[in-house]
Amino acid sequence: MTGLRRADWRFLLPAAPGGRYRLLVLLGGGTDLARRLSGMAERIEESVDAVAEADVVILMAESDAAIPEVAARLARNAVLYVEVDRRRPGRRGLTPARLRASLRKAGLTPAACYWVVPEFARARRHVPLDTPEPLEWYLASLQTAGSRLAVMADAGVRLLAKAGAARLGAFVPCYSMVAVGAGRQPAGTGVLGASSAPVAMLTSGQDDGSRVVLLPFENGHAVPSRVVKVPRLAAFDAHTEREQRTLEELRARLPQSLRSSLPAPLGVRRWNDLLVASESYAPGVPLVVSSGRYGAPLRVAREDLRRAVDWLIAFHLATRAEGARWDDAVAERTLRRLPACRALFPAGSPVHEALDAAVQAASRLRGSLVPMVPLHNDLGPWNVHRDGAAVTVIDWELGEDADRQRLGPGPCDLFYLLTFWTFRVRHQRSRRAELRGLHELFVHPEAGGDVARAAHEEIARYAERLQLESGFLPLLLFVTWIDRAVDRVERARMAAGPEATRPDNAYARYLEVLAEGSARWFREGRWP
What we know:
Elements: E1 21-27, H1 33-36, E2 41-45, E3 56-59, H2 67-73, E4 79-85, H3 96-105, E5 109-117, E6 125-128, H4 132-141, H5 148-162, H6 165-169, E7 174-180, E8 199-203, E9 211-216, E10 227-231, H7 237-253, H8 256-259, E11 265-271, E12 274-279, E13 285-286, H9 287-290, H10 298-319, H11 328-334, H12 338-342, H13 350-364, E14 372-374, E15 384-387, E16 390-393, E17 407-409, H14 411-425, H15 431-443, H16 449-465, H17 472-496, H18 506-514, H19 518-523
Parallel strand pairs: 1-2, 1-3, 3-4
Antiparallel strand pairs: 4-7, 5-6, 5-7, 6-8, 8-9, 9-10, 10-12, 11-12, 13-15, 14-17, 15-16
Helix pairs in contact: 10-14, 10-16, 13-17, 14-16, 14-17, 15-18, 17-18
């Protein structure tokens, strides 16, 4: 089944009259994508013969249709979206400048051009190439060179960008373009309403359950004026509502010194049966970029981590439930996903033994103080922005719909942050490298060197400030990945329905790695 993320181009199209297209022609993209887009148009066809009748034509990178032929057939009031993968035969010499010239020759007006990074199948960034501000912002804020080869490529990209977006565009391997017929005026993306500003689009590049983020550069500003979030599926509207509510309620509770560390919610509205949310833009650079650049000194990443944990400690001290103890109710709530987690592993798996030991440890901790706080649930370095000494934490969508307070044990967010910060600093990007990194971070930290040492210093600092008994640390480390492993399966089902196959589950593999240390942690009361 073609992932719906392969149709993120729909968020870059101009508005359809009445909110819905009459006839959409889809050329390329997989056998079932048209079915999954049925709500976009009254009718969807997949034949070049229908182009002349259509009010929007999508020519995807996989299609072998001739672009000039399609453009020549386009109706006067229609919209054309074209993807060009220059790695394919017959497309290598088709630069954005040449495509613009070809479309103009056919009577069309090019409206927007996007550099698609890294490629269409795994697109994470759609960066406008028509105006300098979005490109300069992207290179300064989001472009991460995580390897020696990437550093060299990054240097080349920056050199080309200095000569202008058009110069860079001549070298990008994947790009897309929106054009309109002679009877229609170019307009901005329909999701943004009346705004005609250039817009960058970001995605996770992962499952259909994730959303897209639109960043408009209005009034010639060098940074986005706001952040607009759109779920790919209406099934995830609740996540959008929850995030707006969370931001509103948390900002109202926080002291002034912390209030600006969360984005300001700017409201929601409906677009094509999806709930669109807006919030203020978070300044600075994500830690995934500043800590993850290849060759950057460890002191830079170490300072990033210290600032992030400073924020986490302050946030948890300000929001923790007063006098919360590890009683039966808290233990039941925290371990509620344990049975579902067991089902992810075959009988006899070492993970089952580790989970049994975790239950026993939970029983021994009864009555101890534990920081129950509003959990972020995705506190990775990609969601922590640093602007000098100021930290902003974004993307508060994840959590349970029925849990308005989002309460959970604070160390779960800490472990999540430390794990992915470590992966980025050590440039561990493959699954195999991540599992090795997790092993060296928690099971045998003496093998993790200065990076693991820095992470454990922050664990100790957090535990001291929050007065956390050390016996909670191994238990809550397991809970962190139990929740993620089960959530990974649940999100896949929401995105693809009951017939969804079980997803490749990185978090289940993490639990297998951690099971090696469980005997020492739980039975001997050691950490780590």
